[in-house]
Specification:
The complex is a heterodimer.
Chain A lengths: L1 H9 L4 E7 L13 E12 L3 E11 L5 E2 L1 E11 L2 E2 L2 E2 L5 E3 L3 E8 L2 E3 L1 E5 L4 E7 L8 E10 L3 E2 L3 E10 L3 E10 L2 E6 L6 E5 L3 E10 L10 H23 L1
Parallel strand pairs in A: 2-16
Antiparallel strand pairs in A: 1-5, 2-3, 3-13, 5-8, 5-12, 6-7, 9-10, 9-13, 11-12, 14-15, 15-19, 16-18, 17-19
Chain B lengths: L26 E11 L5 E12 L10 E8 L2 E8 L5 E6 L7 E8 L4 E9 L5 E7 L5 E5 L2 E2 L3 E7 L4 E8 L2 E4 L2 E4 L2 E11 L2 E9 L2 E9 L6 E11 L2 E12 L4 E9 L5 E24 L2 E4 L2 E3 L2 E4 L46 E2 L8 H6 L4 E2 L1 H16 L3 E3 L6 H10 L3 E4 L8 E3 L3 H11 L3 H13 L3 E3 L2 H9 L4 E4 L3
Parallel strand pairs in B: 1-21, 1-23, 26-31, 27-28, 27-30, 28-29, 30-31
Antiparallel strand pairs in B: 1-2, 2-5, 3-4, 3-15, 6-7, 6-25, 7-12, 8-11, 8-14, 9-12, 10-11, 13-24, 14-23, 15-21, 16-17, 17-20, 18-19, 18-21, 21-22
Helix pairs in contact in B: 2-3, 4-5
The chains are: A mainly beta, B mainly beta.
């Protein structure tokens, strides 16, 4: 079903926004740096959906004890408008993401969470009322399952923007899948590593395929379906000439 | 081996219904109150919560611990299981409750203003309060203070007493927000079940069976124990005892019973041990910063002032108010210059006694306000006169004053009707105002949030305000706003 697959792959231009907002809502600008994410480890296990495990270490940058309060992780899908099974180019639609199995904890301390689904995005709120002493850190984990995998017959793609209203000093993202990695942007050396300044978003895209393809410079589905179309044309031309 | 008869013990049946424990020394509770003190004695507590900290047990009990309930201010948290190496922090929100501390500032006018901050402690314990204030324009000196890169005031306020610190300022000055830190000691209740060592020894002499029930409190705490013993012979159950006792640390209690039975009896013992104790707790202030909370510091709101006495005039000192923290002094409606047009000083000022530290608008500005009492039926006539003036400017209307009858009339007065965001109405312009201004107006003028927001819109847009509320009308007039009171007829 090449048309269906191609259509689905066009849909893989979807952007799965996973934006970490450590601040209480509404998020605001940050004239004073009171805290930072000194370490942020994200593990994404890609199946039909994605299991996301965020281990976040907050560091207090001021000389007074600091309570982070309510934080937010925002998830959003952005993709072209879909007409039946086709995606219409140059259009954009934003959707919330189905989220389940949310849990947050620090050691054995359970962190309260709640999920709110808005018209355009899904928010996971978590509450940290534990003060972080000056210069000290507080590490906690948030896990959830999210419907952020764009899956076709041969390829599946996940695109993860990560950002925060505080500096992320040491970000490490590991993406796991039973399928073979065919494309990563930026280039992945086993995992992604980055440092993201406050109020910036970095995008991380990984594509996996059931086919035994090597890692490619472009997304595999584009290459694959281009080759299919070229071959079809090459086959069609002699047949057309014979007629 | 223990025995009361000729035969050695045959059965020891143990039933563990007991749960476990928490080491009291490993628990603390801290209540966090986001508190803002206003210099007229009022305060606002925005967020209030507590966190119970359970730190790694030193191995006092050497066992896992279960089902602890910590109760504080009618709220409680439960912990199901705590192992020895657990570090837990348990959060629970609370209803906002005021701190029994109030701060009242009094200005003694003169060549230089003396601002006296009286701090009232309504707790039955001595409170140490530290106030940290940035330097500000107009600052001259301070008493009971330390001057460094900031101005520090360290006060010891006796139980149900007060203490004070002073600032001298001159010219037009604006005392900034200050940090207030303190710690109030209190306590919370904790209840948990504990396992107790126990044994049952059974002996027999002919058909007489002797049972010895022994329960030992191996803990260092007093334990309220519930002991229930029974025996089953064949299919018959016979209760032997049901007692509630308090076991001292290390104490052992022995209960002996005997029965006559030709059948071999089985003795049972159910032991429930409960420890109730007090855990140390403290209340600390917090303040919000960049959407986070800084613990240990509350906020003392600043205010603006103006030295109004001419040089060479005799300084008259205002007596310090003798008000106690409760009831809180009634605030005098007033504004800070940043919220309102700059007032001009009174031409011949004398020493002024100001209960509220917040500067009042001088009379000339007040006179700008227009006072009109308008029965609704006359508004139409007024509209004919005022309409040309207001049609381009628009008017601000108290949403609650709008009804179908006066809406059209007001509409004809001001083609644009402005309303605050909280009270939108189709066809009207919605104006968003700074929350802090609304908050200040609300506190200073004792207005509801809705009224304060409406007034803030009028002040911000410099447009006339129409309302049926006399309170809002008067507040608007005092604020230098052109206001119209609409009758309800």
């Amino acid at each position: 079903m090449p048309v269906s697959e191609l259509s689905k792959r066009l849909g893989s231009t979807m952007i799965f926004a996973l934006i970490l907002l450590v601040a209480i809502i509404p998020s605001s600008s940050q004239p004073i740096k009171v805290e930072e994410i000194s370490k942020y480890s994200m593990e994404v296990t890609v199946t039909d959906s994605a299991h996301v495990r965020n281990e976040i270490t907050l560091r207090n940058l001021i000389d007074k004890p600091l309570v982070p309060g309510i934080g937010e992780i925002r998830l959003q899908k952005v993709h072209p408008v879909k007409l039946f099974i086709f995606y219409i180019p140059f259009t954009e639609e934003r959707e919330p993401v189905e989220v389940s199995e949310v849990k947050a904890y620090s050691g054995k301390t359970i962190i309260n969470t709640r999920v709110e689904q808005n018209s355009e995005y899904t928010s996971i709120y978590y509450e940290i009322w534990h003060p972080i002493e000056p210069g000290k850190e507080y590490t906690f984990t948030i896990e959830f399952d999210a419907d952020i995998v764009e899956k076709g017959l041969l390829f599946k793609t996940i695109k993860i923007p990560v950002g925060s209203d505080v500096d992320i000093r040491d970000l490490k993202i590991d993406v796991y899948s039973d399928w073979k990695l065919t494309y990563a942007e930026p280039k992945m050396d086993g995992s992604w590593s980055a440092a993201i300044p406050a109020n910036h978003i970095a995008f991380f895209t990984a594509e996996f395929s059931i086919l035994p393809l090597p890692e490619l410079p472009v997304q595999g589905y584009i290459l694959f379906w281009t080759l299919v179309i070229v071959l079809m044309v090459l086959v069609a031309i002699p047949i057309w000439r014979k007629r | 081996m223990r025995g009361l008869g000729l035969f050695p013990a045959v059965f020891v049946l143990c039933l563990f219904f007991t749960m476990t424990i928490l080491s009291v020394s490993a628990q603390t509770l801290t209540e966090y109150r986001e508190v803002i003190f206003y210099p007229d004695g009022r305060q606002k507590v925005i967020e209030d919560w507590f966190v119970v900290y359970i730190e790694e047990d030193s191995g006092k009990y050497g066992a896992e611990r279960y089902n602890a309930v910590i109760t504080y201010r009618n709220a409680s948290v439960e912990v199901q299981t705590i192992s020895q190496k657990d570090n837990l922090s348990l959060y629970h929100p609370l209803e906002a409750e005021n701190v029994n501390i109030s701060i009242v500032a009094v200005i003694e006018k003169g060549e230089r203003d003396r601002v006296i901050y009286n701090v009232y402690n309504n707790y039955s314990q001595e409170i140490f309060i530290n106030v940290t204030m940035p330097y500000f324009e107009g600052f001259i000196d301070c008493e009971s203070c330390q001057k460094d890169n900031m101005i520090y005031f360290n006060l010891t306020v006796p139980p149900h007493g007060s203490s004070s610190f002073r600032i001298y300022a001159s010219g037009r000055y604006s005392i900034p927000d200050a940090d207030v830190s303190f710690e109030i000691n209190t306590s919370a209740r904790m209840m948990y079940k504990v396992p107790l060592d126990f044994s049952i020894t059974k002996n027999r002499v002919d058909n007489r069976w002797f049972a010895t029930f022994e329960v030992r409190n191996q803990l260092n705490d007093f334990v309220n124990a519930s002991l229930k013993g029974w025996v089953i012979t064949g299919s018959n159950r016979t209760d032997l005892f049901d007692e509630r006792i308090t076991l001292s640390p290390g104490e052992t209690v022995v209960i002996s019973r005997d029965i006559v039975s030709s059948e071999t009896p089985v003795f049972y013992l159910k032991v429930d041990g409960v420890v109730e104790s007090s855990i140390p707790a403290k209340i600390v202030p917090v303040k919000s910063l960049e959407d986070r909370y800084i613990t240990g510091y509350g906020v003392l709101k600043g205010f603006s002032g103006l030295t109004t006495i001419a040089k060479g005039k005799k300084l008259e000192v205002t007596p310090t108010p003798t008000a106690t923290p409760t009831p809180i002094p009634t605030p005098t409606p007033a504004f800070t210059p940043e919220e309102l047009p700059t007032p001009s000083p009174s031409p011949t000022p004398s020493a002024v006694s100001i209960k509220s530290p917040i500067e009042l608008l001088p009379e000339p500005v007040r006179e700008v306000a227009t006072v009109v009492m308008l029965p609704a039926t006359y508004v139409l006539m007024l509209s004919l006169i005022l309409s040309p003036a207001f049609s381009n400017r628009g008017i601000v209307v108290d949403r609650r004053s709008l009804n179908p009858q006066n809406y059209r009339i007001l509409r004809s007065i001001g083609k644009r009707i402005f309303l605050p965001r909280s009270t939108p109405l189709e066809g009207c312009y919605i104006v968003e105002v700074d929350k802090e201004i609304v908050e200040r107006l609300s506190f200073n003028l004792n207005l509801s949030a809705e009224e304060a927001e409406t007034l803030a819109v009028a002040l911000m847009l410099k447009k006339p305000l129409f309302t049926t509320s006399r309170k809002l009308f008067e507040a608007a007039i005092k604020s230098g706003c052109v206001a119209y009171l609409i009758g309800n007829s």
